[in-house]
Amino acid sequence: MPKSSMKTIKRRIKSVGSTLQITKAMEMVASSKLRRAKSRAEALRPYFEAHAELLSDIAVSKPDFTTIFTAKREVKNRLFIVIAGDRGLAGGYNTNLFRLVTDTEKESDAPVKYIAIGRCTVDFFKKREREVIAEYPYFCENVKPGRCADIADVVTDIFKAGEVDEVKLFYTAYVSALRQDVTVLPLLPFTTESGYSGSENSRSPLINYDPSPEAVFDRIIPKMLLSIISSACVQSFASEQSARRNAMESASDNAAEMIEKLSLQYNRARQEKITNEINEIVGGANAIS
Amino acid sequence: MTPFNLQIITPNGYFFNGEAESVIVRTTVGDKGILARHEPYAAALGTGKIRVLRDGSYHLAALSSGIIKVGEDKTVILAQSCEWSENIDIKRAEFAKKAAEEKLSDANLSANEIAIAEFKLKRAINRLHAVEK
Questions:
Q1: ipTM field
Q2: pTM, whole model, 2 decimals?
């Protein structure tokens, strides 16, 4: 085998090796970010659950009441809140979610407004010329309650003003390290059946609401949205890191496998070269004697 | 006084979880004091101070935007943020106050922006007050 081929193999081994280093590093970064996101999700849980419990208490004690947040209206305008990643290279993390969004969009003819969270989300919907009313790039990595409250306020305001009649939240739920589910969650109008019932006990607690159950309920809704949105952001971030870690893990595995194959090829080529040289020497010696 | 279980929960986790003898909160309709064996009660809280009586002395904290729920076995306060007065970063609060005031002096703001800036101003003032007391 010619010498140049050995050189090419060597060069390829080197380039695959440096790719391997990058994917390994990204894998490591993703797993440490994942760990942090998990602990943040853990911290958020009591806040979220306490709200859910309070809401279901109110719903149980006064099942017949309606406020502007619970009344169902004819859907003329829709609002989608979409939470996806800030960066690519995370397997199908972004594309899976966007597919769900575009599928849901086609379900009805009512026009859709978007609140885009995450840089990839902003790019995706701007490129497709959708109406993006608010954008929050680089939001999920460091979720601040105050900024989630801003989003919740914007959502409640435009819902109250009647600009939209339905609000849906799209995010990737973190189930386990190997499983992340793209999820669509109807936020408004608010129904207590839609998975928020915190406590199962249906006994009616006699609570004195100050000034009225409706007032307390209307007060809770923005806070509930805040806690749902921040929990969705944290979960999405955990899912993104997990997806990236898995993608990088298989990329690293592939790279390692490739290096093995290439080294085998290289060694074979080297062996062949040595054999050829010996043959030449032996041939030359034979010719002299 | 008889102690009762008090939990103060923020998006960052449990801010306080333990026994308290009394807690005074500022609801949207006025101040309210809670002692042990209070009737079940729920109310929205505005931005204001809360006082927790514990081991014979009051501990002051600045709270922004929350809900209180008094149940049979425990009292839960849900707040967007909450800090003990001794932990408040005065410089940061003053900076936030100034920033909010500057924002509000801008004439062409949307109603929503005004509401947000006002909320931030209120929160900053509340924090500064909690330190002074």
A1: 0.75
A2: 0.75
